[in-house]
Amino acid sequence: MSDLSTPIGEIPGVGRPAARALADQGLSTLGSLAGADWEQLADLHGVGPAAGRRLQAALAEHGEMMVHPPAPQRRAATVTRGSTGKNAADLKTHATAVDPADYVAGLDARRSREGHVLLELFGQATGAPATMWGPSMIGYGQTHYVYASGREGDTFHVGFSPRKADLALYGLVNLPRSDELLERMGRYRRGAGCVWVKKLEDIDLGALTELVTHAWRTEPGSC
Predict the structure, then answer these.
(1) Can you tell me whether residue 145 is helix, strand or coil?
(2) What angle, rounded to 10 degrees, do the helices at 205-217 and 178-185 form?
(3) Which of 22, 58, 168, 214 has the fewest CB atoms lying closer than 10 Å?
(4) Which of the four pLDDT bands, split at 50, 70 and 90, describes residue 75?
(5) d(CA 15, CA 8)
(6) Exposed, middle or buried, 93 (CB in 10 Å: 0-12/13-18/19+)?
(7) Cα separations (Å) of 94 from 142, 154, 195, 221?
(8) In the chain, where does DSSP find H-type helix?
(9) pLDDT tens, 28-59?
(10) Starting from the edge strand earliest in sequence, which strands make up the sheet with 152-155, in order?
């Protein structure tokens, strides 16, 4: 996984013309694209849909996205339960030995409290141990993905990240009952591959528990 500070021109699959055109707009790093409007950027000379999809995919690996992102390719990725150890050479986010409880304890008071609630909720819903992935994501179980481009890697099945601005919940969308359960959950916004929540008081934890349980029991790629 590329870091958000990675220059756009170093993202695999993004050509020099696209990188130059984006740099002319003051967008030089992957992180600078978070919240940018793709419909406007797509009109720039040298910036094509393939580069847009690659950049959006790189952002999504960090729970970020562009506004009006490029439509994904119709060819679906293959996702299977379990890890294989086969990862793209630039994939930097891996499972670590950091204790998730220790990580959560070191956050600010509100996020620490919410993080401990989510540790218990996800743990009970999945019956699996929590594992830190990268510096800030907490995952349960493992899956392996292979994109249509051939890019592949291991990641977690479901998880969350108690970020400063929002709580990010992963692995809960694009499932047979996602829309139904999200409607019951309360206030949230949907991102590329994740659900964003401002604070736990905004949502129904019972509905979230049911959604996590449903996601955990659903085989990857079944919808």
Answers:
(1) strand
(2) 160
(3) 214
(4) low
(5) 9
(6) buried
(7) 11, 8, 21, 21
(8) 16-23, 38-41, 49-60, 100-105, 109-126, 178-185, 205-217
(9) 999 999 999 999 998 898 888 888 888 988 88
(10) 78-81, 143-146, 152-155
